[in-house]
Structures are given as C-alpha cells and as structure tokens.
Design a protein that fits this description.
Oligomer: single chain
Largest sheet: 8 strands, mixed, barrel
CATH superfamily: Sortase
Radius of gyration: 19 Å
Distance between the termini: 59 Å
Structural class: alpha+beta
Number of domains: 1
Strand order of the largest sheet: 2-3-4-5-8-9-7-6
Shape: globular
Length: 232
Amino acid sequence: MDSLALRLRARLLPALLTAFGVALLTAGLLSYTTPVEAGPQPSEVPTVVTAPPTIAPSLTPRPSGAPTPVPTPTFPADRLATRIVVAALGIDLAVIKQPDPSYPACDVAMYFEALGQPGSGGATYLYAHARTGMFLPILEASKVNDGARMLGMLVEVYTSDDQLFLYEITEVRRHQLDLDDAIAATSEQVWLQTSEGPKGTRPKTQVVARFLSSGAADHDAAHPVARPTVCG
C-alpha cells in the first residue's frame, strides 16, 4: 500500500507543479504590455470577432468537395521566432526572449516561453507594449468594429533558422482575461497580445492567426538587430 501511494505521488506531483507553473506565468503575462495612455476601462465581457474560413489557392486541380491540404511545417527543437511583421498595420519588430523577468522591454516583441515556436504544431504567443513603434496599431484597430478590419491581414513570423511563416488573421479578441485557448491549441497558429489600459490592467487584446505556409527566408531578413530598451 505504501509503495502504491509513493508511485501515485511521484506521478501526480510533477504534473500539478507544471500546471501551477504555467498558471503563474500566464498571470504574470496578463499584467504586462501597457499602452502609452490610459483609456476608458474596458468591459469585463470578452468580445471576439472572427472571420469565415478561407480556402487557400491550389496549384493543381483536386476532386470536387475535397478539402484543400495544408502543409505541415517542420520544427527543429532550437528554432525561435526572431521577427514579427504585420505590414498592413505598419508593424515590424525584432522578437526576443523577455530580458527582464519582472517587466517586458520596449521597442521589441517577445515570445511566451511556456508555449510553442513556429512550426511546433500549436500556438506561438508573441506580445508587445501598446506603444508607438510596437503593438499600438493592434490596440487602435481593435477599437473600431471590434477590430474587424484586421481580419484577413497577413502576419509574417521569421525564425532563427532562416524560415518565414505566413499566417492569416482570423480572430480579434478584446477584453481577454486568460490564455486558455492558446495553451489548448492543437493546430499551427500565432497569437499577438497587447494591453488595453495602464500598467497593471489585466484585460488584453489578442489577435489569432491561422497558418498558411512556410519557406526559406533571407538570413538578414530573419535576423534583425534587436534593440530592447527599458520602458520609461
């Protein structure tokens, strides 16, 4: 009986600690990415705007009614996101690991280490402050018709192994209080997060984009010079 209890404890305790650790990281992330100016306090009711699914063009004929195949990206274990571009919003930022665990840097985007990287088959979660030159355009666009104009925009994510991943924005989620859907994602996606209020404001705006394709990228394009600064 003692042996059984020990075996159960050995299996359950690491799992509980892992779940608790992700919950703590998530809570910390949701307190970050403050905008330049504090606006009206957002509604506590989350708002989600979604786009209808689109069919990617195919270069070869396929039988009527057959779904369009989506290629599965490969994933080397050491791959990291290095650059995020949303050309339609004027966003072009180097992506780095958050340098200061206590607060995100300015003038860069950062990846959430507890989730995946491009090609891992789940969600890549990138976040930046809602400030000029960062993710402020996402916050501003989300205020008009709940961000409907962002639907269909292309998101480019470059990686450390000289790859470019293309995604299409399918959802704009305002006033979000958790990362549950990103954590549970089982398909290739990229999520972008920014804040809706001053430092410490918990609700965030999230943009969700589905995977379209990936391919080789120019080395210099995939390795921008990151110049993180301490937010003033």
